[in-house]
TrEMBL record:
This is Hydrolase. One of its GO terms (biological process) is carbohydrate metabolic process. The keyword Hydrolase applies. PANTHER family: BETA-GALACTOSIDASE (PTHR42732), BETA-MANNOSIDASE (PTHR42732:SF1). Gene3D superfamilies: Galactose-binding domain-like, Glycosidases, Immunoglobulins. InterPro entries: Beta-gal/glucu_dom_sf (IPR036156), Galactose-bd-like_sf (IPR008979), GH (IPR017853), GH2_Domain-Containing (IPR051913), Ig-like_fold (IPR013783), Ig-like_GH2 (IPR006102).
Length: 624
């Protein structure tokens, strides 16, 4: 990769950018110096990348937000209008080569969350976000190996589309070797295909590879994450891609079914993903990440494939307002085509949060409930455009056309009791009144990390509170103390997650995993530091867990949720104020069951539950 880059804000005008002054920048990256700019150009000069055995060069750009024009040695060689599609440009290197890439801000409604105030301006700078590579290549060489796995009655088939570039005319055969990923000693299955191309042509060879008795890819907790590698070799050139075999479909209840098995989903939303977020998602016991109105980098998908995390991939479309349906259909098709080789890709969301009904918080009294109902009644949203776009999403993934507030008839609800309105106890009546017993695409509350003073947010150099609603925070927390702020978030996130799980919601997604700014909805701070809510969400998301419904003095039901793929039998032991007892628990796979009722002493300040199944034990502690 070229090591020295410079950048400059530029005006639209056509042609190769020629700003009067450049300044040093890091690429890939999002230079904060250009925050708020609509167009930024990046320039580098690199030497001939070829080794003695190479004939050609290959330029690869990943994550050009939100559109780009690429100039190589004064020639326009590539254009892009989607951050998620990589650009691959074969070229004949010179002794010294100039690369200029002009990136531009979104020019339509499909800029996603990075085109809103929920992400800091410095994280939305037009730029090359994910990667740049310049390599030497033989002639001819394999540019790309695109894989599409599908289950068949005989087993499975991997449809491979191999792109080849030839500097000179070509008439040859390429070899495809397929074997389980990580199997270094196995020879694998071999197939051959003819390839022909004129000089300077990019040709695509298609070949279907039959996989007998395939090993399936499963979400974490349901089985192993088996994958296959396909290596395409043409003369001295080779390229390898990986995929996994899994079937995904949506259920009538709004859930997900993988390989014919219903998967209870415990998810977290990502506002601006980093690869390390896959590990953080695992730490809170999630089995799904939702790319909230933005596209994930390929490296993040690879991490999810390996970790067994399902991916709910939104279109980059959020907020109120009309949008171009044809453009939406095109983006949906291209988005799925880009990521379809990843077995983790499970669902697509089309229009996120199309109304802003609760821009101002509503309380929890009787009059407030009337005010809540009035606001919902006044909200105006036509689902038709989102449903049309959803029809264009290719088969093989579940689709949520609308993720929204009550009143939008959402396919996955955005529910924020305790933040937008009322408290945790208002969750039940909201879901009942508006028939929201299916998937929940987001819930949560914001909080302050240690060391953030929101009082200085408006001063130069103060914290960036993008994605953090300070007025709602102050209304529910009543303090700028990070300890009180995090305690409130932890209790609310736990309370909502537990109620949704005990009620049997098929999909439960907490918003968010990590803050986008210096404070926010994340259970982790922007830099990855855990907040108090990490432990509470992890406890609420334990795959097999015992819950105390309506934890308080007096009689309370004990509910066991079993997200494991097999039935469980065990014992729930409880302790409170010196008293204790046990209840037996037998729960089917993927089910929730009231296993008993306990009488909590009036003097109790806490209740400890411990669920033991075989040699494994998990605890859940309630502070009263």
């Amino acid at each position: 990769m070229p090591s020295k880059w410079s950048g400059a804000a530029v005006d639209p005008g056509g042609g190769k950018p020629t700003p009067g002054e450049w300044q040093s920048v890091e690429v890939p990256g999002r230079p904060a110096a250009f925050a708020g700019e609509d167009r930024v150009a990046y320039r580098t000069v690199f030497d001939d990348p070829r080794d003695p055995d190479d004939d050609l060069g290959l330029l690869e750009l990943r994550g050009c937000y939100a559109g780009a024009e690429v100039w190589l040695n004064d020639e326009l060689v590539a254009e892009s209008d989607a951050v998620f599609e990589p650009l691959k440009v074969p070229f004949e290197p010179e002794a010294e080569n100039e690369l200029v890439v002009e990136c531009r801000a979104p020019e339509d409604r499909f800029g996603g969350i990075h085109d809103t105030d929920r992400v800091p301006d410095e994280r939305s700078v037009p730029g090359i976000w994910w990667g740049v590579d310049v390599t030497g290549q033989p002639d001819p060489f394999v540019v790309d190996v695109d894989l599409r796995p599908r289950a068949t009655e005989e087993g499975a088939t991997i449809d491979a589309a191999v792109e080849v570039y030839a500097g000179e005319s070509l008439d040859d055969r390429l070899t495809l070797t397929t074997k389980p990923a990580g199997d270094r000693r196995g020879r694998g299955m071999m197939d051959r295909a003819s390839v022909s191309a004129a000089a300077g042509e990019r040709a695509v060879v298609e070949k279907s590879i039959d996989v007998r008795d395939p090993s399936l890819w499963w979400p974490r907790g349901m089985g192993r994450q088996h994958r296959y590698e396909v290596r395409a070799k043409l003369d001295e050139a080779a390229r390898t891609s990986a995929t996994g075999i899994a079937t995904v479909e949506g259920t009538d209840e709004g859930g997900l079914r993988v390989n014919g098995e219903d998967v209870p989903v415990r998810g977290v939303a990502l506002t601006d993903a980093a690869v390390a977020d896959a590990e953080r998602a695992v730490e809170v016991n999630a089995n799904l990440v939702r790319a909230h109105a933005h596209a994930l980098p390929e490296a993040m998908y690879d991490a999810c494939d390996e970790a067994g995390l399902l991916v709910w991939q939104d279109l980059p479309l959020t907020g109120p307002g009309v949008f171009d349906i044809a453009r939406g259909e095109e983006v949906a098709e291209r988005l799925v085509d880009t990521y379809a080789h990843h077995p983790s890709l499970a669902a697509v969301g089309v229009h996120d949060e199309p109304t802003d009904t609760f821009a101002e918080r509503v309380g929890s009294g009787l009059v407030d409930r009337l005010r809540f109902r009035y606001r919902v009644w006044r909200s105006d949203y036509d689902r038709g455009a989102a449903e049309e776009v959803a029809e264009a999403v290719p088969d093989g993934v579940a689709v949520y056309p609308v993720v929204g507030e009550p009143g939008t008839d959402p396919d996955a609800a955005a529910l924020y009791p305790g933040w937008d309105y009322g408290g945790v106890d208002d969750l039940d009546w909201v879901r009942d009144r508006y028939d929201l017993d299916g998937a929940v695409g987001e819930f949560g509350a914001g909080s302050l990390p240690e060391g953030v003073d929101p009082a200085g947010a408006d001063d130069d150099g103060g914290p960036d509170l993008a994605g953090f609603d300070r007025s709602k925070h102050d209304a529910v927390v009543g303090s700028d103390d990070p300890e009180a702020s995090q305690a409130y978030q932890a209790e609310l996130v736990r309370g909502v997650a537990e109620r949704l799980r005990t009620d049997g919601a098929p999909v439960v997604v907490a918003n968010a995993l990590r803050d986008a700014g210096d404070a926010g909805m994340g259970v982790y701070a922007r830099d990855g530091t855990p907040k108090e809510a990490v432990d509470s969400l992890a406890a609420a998301f334990e795959p097999v867990q015992a819950f105390l419904v309506g934890a308080s003095a007096g009689e309370c039901d004990v509910v066991v949720a079993n997200d494991a793929p097999e039935a469980i039998s065990g014992t729930v032991r409880w302790e409170a104020s010196g008293e204790s007892g046990e209840v037996e628990a037998t729960v089917d796979a993927g089910a929730r069951s009231v296993v008993g009722t306990i009488d909590v002493p009036s003097a109790a300040s806490s209740v400890d539950l411990a669920l033991r199944v075989g040699d494994a034990s998990v605890e859940n502690v309630y502070r009263l």
